[in-house]
């Protein structure tokens, strides 16, 4: 165990020797000072658990020394016991406490009283040191928990994103589509703004897979997904993989004319991909059919009706030769 340092201050060497003899212990590091000035200097080099300070000293007495110690950030919390031969008048006692003393000892010193009081303050010091150690350990644990919490939040966010993404195309998946559709329907109901929905289906995709294989089929889905995403310019618009070779675009605050413009861009972008499709009756390259529906959401109508309406329009487009769109 590291020795605890205490400072004894007296201008008379014999008094210092007496204090040392009474307090001598392997667990104590007793530091001497012969004056108030020397006591202040000693505090620069040591951390003291307690100061035993003589009141009557030349040049700078104990009251002045205690006042300066209390005014210093490093030493203001060190307990000070005044050691004095002065009479016990209340004015002297009050002056000592006003200067920062926590207790008084009167000369001639009674060894049992001295050691008992010193023992109390040393125990308080040990408890304070232990508390500081525990506080640092607790702070470290709090920091560790904060780090773990941050890592957990990041992991949860990654999981949330992964659970909302289609693994093949990296587009939002059907679950995300359903959540977004509900949210945008509610928003449209509040603001009474039109909500458009586009459903898209790759033409003759089963025949494509039969002709080229599923690996090339997956590559085709990825390219079509990018072509569709390239066709929208607003952050509020959402394109999701609806299922299989079907895709959906949710377009908040978009009327029928705006939806048609986006479909026309989609048709152009899919055509520019130039993905060969030898098994398609519609064209020599991969094409997509689209169904568009627009509604002003209301509490009396379900978003399911918008989806069913867009699905009906898609069905009509597929029956109209494909590689086109219809509006419902």
In a few lines, what is going on in this structure?
The protein is α/β, with parallel strands linked by helices and 328 residues long. The chain contains 10 helices and 10 strands.
Q: Could you explain the architecture of this structure?
A:
The chain is α/β, with parallel strands linked by helices and 328 residues long. It has two domains: 4-133, Response regulator (Rossmann fold, 3-Layer(aba) Sandwich), CATH 3.40.50.2300; 174-327, Alpha-Beta Plaits. Helices cover 52% and strands 18% of the residues. It has ten helices and ten strands. The protein has helices spanning 13-23, 36-45, 62-70, 90-99, 111-163, 174-191, 205-212, 214-229, 256-273, 303-318, and strands spanning 4-9, 28-33, 48-54, 80-84, 103-106, 195-202, 238-243, 246-252, 288-295, 325-327. The protein has a five-stranded parallel sheet with strand order 2-1-3-4-5, with helices on both faces. Helix 2 runs parallel beside helix 3 and helix 8 (214-229) packs across helix 9. The mean pLDDT is 91.
